[in-house]
Amino acid sequence: MKARDCVCDPPLADSYQELSYKSTQAELRQHDQDCEVIAECELPMIDLRGLRSCNEEERHACVEAIAKASTEWGFFQVLNHGISRELLEEMWREQIKLFALPFEKKARSRLLNDSYRWGTPTATSLHQFSWSEAFHVPLVKISEKGSCYGEFSSLRDAMEKLAAAMSELATTLAGALAESLGYDSRGFPESCNKSTCFLRLNHYPPCPFSAEIFGLMPHTDSDFLTILYQDQVGGLQLMKDSKWVAVKPNPDALIVNIGDLFQAWSNDVYKSVEHKVLINSKRDRYSIAYFLCPSYESTIGSCKKPSIYKDFTFGEYRKQVQDDVKITGQKIGLPRFLLQNISL
């Protein structure tokens, strides 16, 4: 089935068709290679009851398990994380209702302060195109006037509760990772609040003409860490030992991954790993991601010296990423800030 024969809402097929016409055979082969999956894996599983244990040995073992997974994988799963299944399912129902709206209403109605995104409008090749739609919402905007919830007032309530719970969990995990490197975990990381942290509601519609399309193109996250709640459709993949591996969904766990800022702060001890999402040709996929970010003025220095990165603020990092995407079509990220000169 060809893209021009498909009717998609949002109109992703039109963009994909245009890019497919423009792409060279070399770009198409590269895209196919990037979609190859070697194996399915189960991420390291960590029971967070250990962090709340009165037994110091149990607590220390949990902290070190989190650090080990962040060093070797850059990803891990958590159980007994403190966020109720009822809240997650409530948010899930609201999210599905939200994405069921017609494209024009999502794009034009100022829902969640105009935070709606679809596809990749800046893409110049298939390698840069993401077959997905999302609401990328700063926490401070969830309850702000002008969010235009209307019949979605229950969505606002669910998002507020989930954002508070995710924030608490993210701060706990960040503190454990800092503690493992001998850093005072109290108040770490600084300046992470509602004005800088985000919730992202993701929807990956079925693609009727190919399953080998990026729902989300390969990337690393530009934050301290990300917490993900996903459905059981699958599609998340990460780079492990220079190979793409598919993450096996677990209905009882949340997924956590290290972002670029934690890799820089830890002096490359913790790894911000490249990951992507492939779509399903028949089933919708939904996920909710929380991003732990500092203020734009916060300096991301290394916890240990000598550092391999230049000091930079989060604002400088975001601007460099945006500039690179605008000029090259893709993020370059941390290599821009290495003290040693490298060819990019």
Query: What's the structural domain tally?
Result: 1
Q: What are the secondary-structure elements, in order, as H or E?
A: HHEEHEHHEEHEEEEEEHEEEEH
Estimated radius of gyration: 20 Å
The unreliable regions are none
**Global structural class:** alpha+beta
**Biggest pleated-sheet summary:** 8 strands, mixed
Write down the CATH class.
Mainly Beta
Structural commentary:
This protein has 344 residues and is an alpha+beta fold. It has a single domain (3-309), classed as B-lactam Antibiotic, Isopenicillin N Synthase, Chain (Jelly Rolls, Sandwich). Helix content is 31%, strand content 20%. The protein has helices spanning 12-22, 25-34, 56-72, 85-99, 103-108, 153-180, 260-265, 314-328; strands at 39-41, 45-47, 75-79, 116-118, 133-138, 198-204, 214-219, 225-230, 236-240, 243-247, 254-258, 275-278, 285-292, 299-300, 312-313. The model has no long low-confidence stretch (mean pLDDT 88). The strands form three sheets. An eight-stranded mixed beta sheet has the order 2-3-11-8-13-6-5-4. A five-stranded mixed beta sheet has the order 1-10-9-12-7, with no helix packed on it. The protein is globular, with a radius of gyration of 20 Å. The protein starts with 11 loop residues before the first helix and ends in a 16-residue tail after the last helix. Helix 4 (85-99) crosses helix 6 (153-180). It is built from eight helices and 15 strands.
